[in-house]
Design goal:
Helices cover 38% and strands 19% of the residues. The protein has 498 residues and is of the alpha/beta class. Helix 1 (11-21) packs across helix 3 (43-60), helix 11 (272-280) runs parallel beside helix 12 and helix 15 runs parallel beside helix 16. Bound molecules: S-adenosyl-L-homocysteine, iron/sulfur cluster and FE3-S4 cluster.
């Protein structure tokens, strides 16, 4: 660790550091925050960002506000929570209003073209803000920011952006901010280095009920359509001790739902079913979910572990992507529909109500009408409680981008609609299995049609009338009717996970 007290940093930074150690900040940051700082190699940069925040407070009467918005998957949302944790350590507070913000960070997704276009639109809209407030700091980070062509486009055409950094640079946030704040230079940090996973992040979680816990990062699968392995690097797993300690702490703090995250959680290198069994031993009133699972690594042991557990939700998000073996091969998915159905059949044979959800890509290059029909057929055969379906989006640099594609966009759009209609019909049949049943629900928020909304173990939205004080608790609800997006019922009593 750098001994920065003897290094050449400015006076105010030293003062802030000393303040920290005489304990003024300890109550605010908590012991973990201070431990994190002690372990942070770039503490000098931290102190300088802290000094900037203190100076801002002195001048403006309030701390600088940061606006951090994460697009994309839960993994990205979790990264955004870590960014907020670091910014809070340095003295920022947060706002949901870009107009009030002194620092704006878009944490981006690159999985489909429209995800990228949304970010360009949002950043374009900030141009006038920067003109009014030249010391506003604007940053783009995350998956899209890891792509070279994106950084080049931003460098040339989005002059209002000060900071672009990819998914490998989170632990250099303070240094990058110093370059922008003190050296008045733009930063483009895309280098790809797979360092040890840092456990030294304090997180500001968006919810007090549900928490995301990444257990692994990156992906080795290289599905031919997918950009993720290029922007998130190779698989790295966190140590089970670290994961279990974090889950135990969250449950102790009262979190009711823990979602373990990874691009492919079941290739967790220390054994995924074992990890689930260890977590399940933790006493308390909580549920565990996880995503995503790759069918090639889904085993009967995984299904048994879920079914035999107390806290793990009886549902599995198992992206099938397509129902044709030719298309699956072209996608490099490394399973056949037969392999896939063996897993779903095994689960249903052990537990008939076992819930599956999935991702589907419509219009992969070369997908014929018959092959699309096969996707509809597998959807019907499995019966999914939830489907996330997407029209194939060409990602430059991936193998599928060079595959011949003779289906036009309009046909692809029609296929997507057809798929959604098919699923709508299936849902009516599937959801009817809950009618008249008493089920457990974790209440999350106010409802759309009834006063409260939550989810059951299958992950399906359940709405019912009840007192707001039930938000954040498990309750028993009797299901009386269904729609194609939710179940409706009557509140019976408070429930617990036994
Ligand atoms: N690692 C996860 C998924 C990450 S991306 C998994 O393998 O399950 C989430 C979903 O986006 C994918 O499952 C896929 O259905 C979809 N997707 C990925 N790349 C895409 C592309 N180029 N076009 C359309 N959909 C895509
Ligand atoms: Fe992408 Fe495939 Fe990896 Fe999922 S498993 S992130 S779809 S390459
Ligand atoms: Fe998007 Fe990156 Fe997640 S590309 S889906 S935010 S891993």
């Amino acid at each position: 660790m750098r001994d920065f007290l003897t290094s050449n940093i400015d006076k105010i930074a030293k003062k802030v550091y000393n303040k920290l150690y005489i304990g003024l900040l300890v109550p605010k940051l908590g012991k973990r925050g201070v431990d994190v700082l002690k372990n942070t190699e770039n503490t000098a940069a931290y102190a300088r960002v802290r000094a900037y925040c203190e100076g801002y407070l002195e001048k403006n009467g309030h701390r600088p506000l940061a606006y951090v918005y994460s697009f994309g998957c839960q993994q990205n949302v979790s990264d955004g929570e870590k960014l907020k944790g670091q910014l809070s350590l340095a003295g920022f507070e947060f706002t949901d209003d870009t107009e009030q913000a002194q620092l704006i960070i878009y944490n981006t997704c690159a999985v489909r073209e429209n995800a990228e276009n949304t970010v360009y639109g949002a950043v374009g809209d900030l141009k006038h803000l920067k003109e009014q407030k030249p010391d506003l700091i604007i940053g783009i980070c995350g998956c899209m920011a890891q792509l070279k062509h994106v950084a080049e486009k931003v460098k040339a055409s989005y002059r209002q952006v000060d900071l672009v950094f990819g998914t490998f640079a989170y632990n250099e946030l303070f240094e990058m901010l110093c370059t922008v704040i003190y050296d008045k230079k733009r930063v483009f940090e895309l280098s790809e280095r797979t360092t040890e996973i840092s456990e030294d992040f304090v997180q500001i979680r968006d919810s007090k009920i549900k928490a995301f816990v990444p257990i692994m990062y990156g992906c080795n699968n290289f599905c031919t359509y997918c950009i993720v392995p290029y922007v998130r690097g190779r698989e790295r797993s966190r140590k089970p001790e670290a994961v279990i300690a974090e889950v135990r702490k969250l449950i102790g703090e009262g979190y009711k739902e823990i979602t373990l995250l990874g691009q492919n959680v079941n290739s967790y290198s220390y054994g995924f079913p074992q990890l689930l069994r260890e977590i399940d031993k933790i006493e308390g009133d909580y549920w565990v979910r996880f995503m995503s699972s790759h069918p090639k690594d889904a085993t009967n042991e995984l299904i048994d572990t879920i079914i035999d557990s107390k806290h793990i939700c009886k549902s599995l998000h198992l992206p099938v992507q397509a129902g044709s073996d030719r298309v699956l091969k072209a996608m490099n998915r490394r399973y056949t529909t037969e392999d896939y159905l063996k897993i779903t059949d095994y689960a249903r044979q052990r537990c008939p109500g076992f819930s599956f959800s999935t991702d589907i890509i419509v219009g992969f290059p070369g997908e014929s009408k018959e092959e699309f029909e096969q996707t509809k057929a597998i959807i019907k055969r499995v019966g999914y409680d939830n489907i996330y379906s997407f029209v194939y989006s060409k990602r430059s640099g991936t193998p599928a981008a060079n595959m011949p594609d003779d289906t036009d966009d309009k046909t692809k759009g029609l296929r997507l609609r057809e798929l959604l209609l098919e699923q709508r019909e299936n849902i009516e049949r599937l959801f009817s299995r809950f009618l008249g049943k008493e089920i457990k629900v974790l209440v999350e928020a106010k409802g759309r049609q009834k006063s409260l909304a939550g989810r059951n173990t299958e992950g399906i939205i359940v709405e019912f009338d009840g007192d707001e004080s039930l938000i954040g608790q498990f309750v028993d609800v009797k299901i009386t009717s269904t729609a194609n997006w939710a179940l409706f019922g009557e509140y019976i009593k408070k429930g617990e996970i036994k």
